[in-house]
Amino acid sequence: MNKIIEKIVLSKDVKQYIVECSAIAQKALAGQFVVIRICETGERIPLTIADSDKAEGTITLIVQEVGKTTRQMGFLEVGDSILDIAGPLGTPSEIEHFGTVVMIGGGIGIAPLYPITKAMKAAGNKVISIIGARCADLLFYQDLMAAQSDMIIETTDDGTCGRQGFVTDALSELIESGERIDRVVAIGPAIMMKMVAETTRPHGIPTIASLNSIMVDGTGMCGACRVEVGGETKFACVDGPDFDAHAVNFDLLIQRLAMYLPEEKIADEHFCRCSSAKEGEKNA
Q: Has this prediction a pTM greater than 0.85?
C-alpha cells in the first residue's frame, strides 16, 4: 500500500498527488513512468513520474480526470492509499548537454515534461520552454517550469493566459527568429506532437516525442502499446516512451488511441451514476 501524503488541485480536473513509494523514488529517472492500480478490482493505468524525492521516499503523480479510473482516483484524499504502484518503467529520457533545447508541453503533458526540463537544465543546456493549454484554467506548473528555463512562453487557445494560439505558433516564431535550436522535446496530445514534428521537420531539428499510447502491463508483454516508428513496430512501454518524432506514425497512433473510446465512455458513465447514487444516499 502506498499512502498519499499530499493532494493539490492544479487546475480543472487535474490533481497532484505526492505518494510514499521509497523503492521507486530511489530509482526513478526523468522520462520514466509507473503503472498503478487503485484497488483489487481496478484497472491498471500508466502515470508519468512528475517528480521524485529520494530523501523523503516519495514520488509525484499528476492525474487528469478523463475516465472511470482517473475519476475514482480523484476521490482519494490525504491518508488514503493506492494499492499497487509498479515501476519505474520505460527507458529514461536521453539527457545530455545538447546546447539549446526547446521543451514543449501541452495540457497534461506539462507534468511529464517538467522532470525532463529539470534534467536538461542540470546538464547545462539553454532551456526554452513553451507550455500551452486550451484555456488558463487548464494551465499549470508555470512557476516550476519557469524556474528551470532560461525563457518560458505560455500559450492558450482562447488567449486567457499568455499569448493566444498554439504551442506550434510559438515554436514557428522561435525558429523564424533565427534562434539556434539543437533539440526539441514535445509531450502532449498526439495531434499536438504530430504538429510539432511537422514544424521542425523542414528545418532538420532533432525532435523527441513521448508517446501516450494505451498500456496495460507496462512490461512489453501485452502489446497494447505498440506504435509504428520508422516503419517498425515498437512498444512504447519498453522501447519508449521517447521516440524520434519524425519517424512516428502519428496517424496510426491517433487511430489506436480511439479504439476503446466507446467502452471507456460506458465505464465512465456507470461510475458517475454509482458515485452520484452513493452521494445521494449519504446526504439523505
A: yes
